[in-house]
Amino acid sequence: MRLTQLREQDGFTLIELLIVMIILGLLAALVGPRMFGKVGSSRQKAAKAQISLLETALDTYRLDTGTYPSTEQGLQALRTKPDGVKNWDGPYLPKDVPKDPWGHPYIYKCPGEHGDYDIISYGADGVEGGEGENADIVNWEDNKGK
What we know:
Elements: H1 2-9, H2 14-65, E1 107-109, E2 118-121, E3 137-138
Antiparallel strand pairs: 1-2, 2-3
């Protein structure tokens, strides 16, 4: 008799499991979109931080060599000594030149259209222009308010 009573009390009923699953689904539906919405802005902040790191490395390169790397030499000049460059004391980056958070290489132009050099990430879509997560991240604009 005792064994029968224990079996009737063991486990959860199907209704109880369904209620728990519905509650979890509702929580995921409410919290999920808010969390995924922050992924885009996190990547943009990471791109800004990487551009700032590249700017620091470029300035150090210039202090040593007297000029910034040319467009042809590119950002790779921060890791390996370009031919014909005197006083190169690199590498100026601890690791390989990073790609932007979306996996695209940064665009580097020297001389730049907006200063001594331009560093550009075309955002999530990898195409010039765009809004939101597709917006370009550049070194010559103050992107703190965006």
